[in-house]
Amino acid sequence: MEFMSDLTGSEAAAQPSLFELFAQDKLSGLFKPALSYVLATYAQRYPRYLLRLVNRQDELYALLMLLVDRHYLRRYGSSFAENIYGLKRVSTDPLRSSSKLNSRDITRSLCFLVVVPYLKGKLDLLYEKHSGGAVALLFGDQWQTPLKERLRTWIKRLFVMIYPYVHAVFHLLPLGYNLAYLLGKTRYYSPWLQYMGIEVQRMTMADYVRIMDIFQQPGLSTAQRLRLLASHISEIPLDLLNVVLPMSVFFFRFLEWWYTSDFYKSSLSIPVPLPPKSLKPSSKGTPLPDDPRQCPICHNVRTNPAIIPDSGYACCYPCLHNYVEQYGHCPVTLVPATSNAITKLYSNP
């Protein structure tokens, strides 16, 4: 998706639009549901191996994104989602000779990209857990409980009271920065970037050339080039993620849409098959009586009715059983039959 970037060198073109930044944020938010879907699907087949991963999917996702984003920050100067949209992170420290990210910038970026969202998710779950019926008991008479237990209860109560304000600030503060960025009042679209002194820009043609010419560094010995090549080969699976993961997310969203669409529901509604054509009485068989309630064999009103499924004409069970045992076929249609094929009929009174 790098083609979405404007590769001109002007300062205005280097600044991405707010919609590009929203798009990469939205893309990064789709990875976790996709991972959860894959784990839940395969855990049903291999619960012995994957059930623990399902129970620890938050930690698994954080660990995977920590490894992936660390690789992309070190190699491309951008997070994984930012790299897909052709964006990069640069330092805005005027005292530094280079705007390239150093190890401190990478560590702080990983903290706000992975660790902070992980902790925020855990706090959300903790708030949902303690803001229900258990907290309603906090206002009751709990003085008979031990001091340690009362202290823990009051800490939970304080957390439930304060956390909604923390949650609001956590979401409203970036919203204010988004609005200021849209109006051109700041070059940071989030407060975390301003705190780190990092700005998100579009990658330029020089950045792409530098990445492609990584093996053309002058002054490298043959051994150094081989080590560089070996390290690059080991990182190829991570580099391929910028193609594989977006395709996986697209496939996940497609499945999500498909299973909720009318097309999928209509594919499950199989029409009822048409009943088979009834066999006509044979000219050599027993003629049917005028009264449909009568048995074709004894010509009395049927008692304990039964049929041969392949034929479909009802007779008294004793009459039909004796006839089939003697002749080996249906008395009306002459279709071959055995006594084991005779089926009794039951009707509600």
UniProtKB/TrEMBL annotation:
Pfam families: Pex2_Pex12
Keyword Nucleotide-binding assigned: no
Cellular component aspect of the GO annotation: peroxisomal importomer complex; peroxisomal membrane
Pex N-terminal domain segment(s): 25-261
CDD domains: mRING_PEX12
InterPro entries: PEX12, Pex_N, Znf_RING/FYVE/PHD
Pathway terms, separated by semicolons: Protein modification; protein ubiquitination
Membrane topology designation: Multi-pass membrane protein
Keywords: Membrane, Metal-binding, Peroxisome, Protein transport, Transmembrane, Transmembrane helix, Transport, Zinc, Zinc-finger
Entry keyword annotation includes Zinc: yes
GO molecular function: ubiquitin-protein transferase activity; zinc ion binding
Biological process, per Gene Ontology: protein import into peroxisome matrix, receptor recycling; protein monoubiquitination
Record localization: Peroxisome membrane
Family per record: Belongs to the pex2/pex10/pex12 family.
Subunit structure: Component of the PEX2-PEX10-PEX12 retrotranslocation channel, composed of PEX2, PEX10 and PEX12.
Protein function: Component of a retrotranslocation channel required for peroxisome organization by mediating export of the PEX5 receptor from peroxisomes to the cytosol, thereby promoting PEX5 recycling.
Protein name as catalogued: Peroxisome assembly protein 12
Native species: Dimargaris cristalligena
